[in-house]
Amino acid sequence: MLASAFILGFLGSFHCVGMCGPIAFMLPLDRNNQVKKFLQILSYHTGRFISYATIGAIFGMLGTGFYLSGYQQQLSIFVGVLMILTVITPQHLLQKVRITQPIYKLISKLKSALGKQFKKRSFSSLFTIGLLNGLLPCGLVYMAVFGALALGNPIESGLYMVLFGMGTLPLMSVAAYLGNFLNVTTRKRIQKLVPVFIAIIGVFFILRGLGLGIPYVSPSNMNLMVKEAPTCH
């Protein structure tokens, strides 16, 4: 399941270039010093990864509650179904569900803080931009969070989100170096693959929850449920 996070991030990075690409295009980099520019981009990605890892760990702790209650399998199936429903539901219906509306003011503050950091060229400002970028609402990140939640372990969930971030690293780095290098037509063609792969990941989560005894794909019930402590003699 952890490998799926990297692949989701890699394929989803084509979507990221369209949505978060402007942030990467406008990073306040020192473009006259290649070594410094590389380190600045590294600082930016480090900030993103820390945000993703933190989000993953938080949702992993929530998932731990389901694990301890013996509901991790049901949660895995629910997450898989939710992923599939998200990609097959018409976009105009999803837009009516304003998940971010209650925290609109918080998002505005994040964007405001992000804007201030673009006026600087320090490593700390690049790190902060990445940190704030990772906290901005993104449908693709939500899909990764669903996966992290289903793992039910703060460490694994945090790692899942980091691997997701690492999947986005190649294309987002190229975007930072070269700017808007993909035309609209190419991005649209590649973005069509993203929902397909999200649905495939959803199927894997459903199989995982069913506990069919298939190694690495659908482990048995006892591997997913909390086992009783052995009786002492």
Automatic annotation (TrEMBL):
Transmembrane segments: 6-29, 49-69, 75-94, 126-152, 158-181, 193-217
Organism this protein belongs to: Neptunitalea lumnitzerae
Record-linked InterPro entries: MFS_trans_sf, UreH-like_TM_dom
Keyword terms: Membrane, Transmembrane, Transmembrane helix
Family matches, as Pfam families: DsbD_2 (PF13386)
Protein name per UniProt: Membrane protein
Urease accessory protein UreH-like transmembrane domain location: 5-203
